[in-house]
Design goal:
Layout lengths: L1 H25 L9 H24 L11 H24 L3
Length: about 100
Amino acid sequence: MPPLGAGAGSDAFWIAFPMTVVFLSLLALPKLARLLPPMIAALIVSAVFLACYLTYHFTAPIFVFPGTGWVVPVYYAMLISHVFLAAIATPMIANPM
């Protein structure tokens, strides 16, 4: 399961990124109704990415960082900030306003 989840999450990201670029280019169009289909598509792909990402991290085995020295606090600082920001961002997806 973890390799499938990681792969699908990566694929979803590389699909969502160009969709976001297209969406941003469509902002210049006069009719906002044209923005709805790309927004819905990007939301669906982003939700798939989030589901794969969370599934992978909940099912992956516990990882112990093998580094030593000054790299260890840098790694854990990055890891803690990543987890903290992900925990903050996840509820914002359900209620963006």
